[in-house]
Specification:
globular
């Protein structure tokens, strides 16, 4: 792991009602000083963003929305604008998660529009990319990742690309209990970093944080930490319990501290 500040982000997905969400956020915020070399981010369900943000006031834990629309306002029932997210204290937005692509029709075009809007409104964009099992077995992992990253960053200038985090999430490892090997994750992360150098320049590529998501647990984080292009994790199920989430963060802290 390099001098890039590592990230441990929890995507709570559609879980936790209000009080359990506050309790989890409070536990993460209370322990955040213990992992001061690691940037912590939590991403609760949309209706609880403000309440969770208030629970974490005074801590350095970031608050991420699970999606963002590209318009500031308008006739977009069910969507939330970047302006609204900033207004309630969000610092980050997850964009293009595989579940959004699979279940809700997200495309590379809509991911790009959402990413540009988030970045233009001072939200750090956590852009998710990753291949299916068929694509991996067919030898198309690198091609798929490159296509998704290029599409997501189309017309994104360097000045905004500095606020991009790329999350590599192989679809076959999302919620399955399966995880990419450290070597598989490293190969994908290295591909992304090389592509960032081509799209922008080596300096930006070297500072872009690339994180792994895909059934990350306390028991499998150690091998990932050791990879040179691993800058942290986007965690699903293990982020729903403070103990497991913080255990992963402490493992990362111990490695970089």
């Amino acid at each position: 792991m390099s001098e890039r500040t590592p990230i441990v982000a929890g995507n709570w997905k559609m879980n936790k009602t209000l009080e359990p969400a506050r309790e989890l956020a409070g536990a993460v915020a209370e322990a955040s000083d213990e992992v001061g070399d690691v940037e912590l981010i939590v991403s609760p369900v949309g209706p609880y963003l403000r309440a969770v943000g208030r629970t974490m006031e005074g801590s350095d834990v970031g608050l991420a929305a699970q999606n963002v629309h590209w318009a500031e306002s308008g006739a977009y029932t069910g969507e939330v604008s970047p302006t609204m997210l900033r207004d309630i204290g969000c610092s980050h937005a997850i964009i293009g998660h595989s579940e959004r692509r699979q279940y809700f029709g997200e495309t590379d075009v809509s991911v790009n529009r959402r990413a540009r809007a988030a970045l233009e409104h001072d939200l750090t964009a956590i852009i998710c990319v990753g291949e299916s099992l068929a694509e991996r077995k067919g030898g198309d992992t690198e091609l798929k990742i490159k296509l998704q990253v290029r599409a997501a960053l189309s017309e994104v200038p360097r000045s905004l690309a500095r606020n991009v985090i790329i999350a590599y999430e192989p679809l076959w490892a999302i919620g399955t209990g399966e995880s990419a090997t450290p070597e598989q994750a490293q190969d994908a992360h290295a591909t992304i970093r090389q592509l960032m150098a081509g799209l922008y320049d080596q300096k930006l590529a070297d500072t872009t944080r690339i994180i792994y998501g895909g059934s990350v647990k306390p028991h499998n984080i150690d091998g990932l930490i050791e990879q040179p292009d691993f800058d942290g994790a986007l965690i699903g199920g293990a982020s729903l319990q403070a103990d497991s989430f913080l255990s992963i963060a402490r493992s990362v802290q111990d490695y970089v501290g």
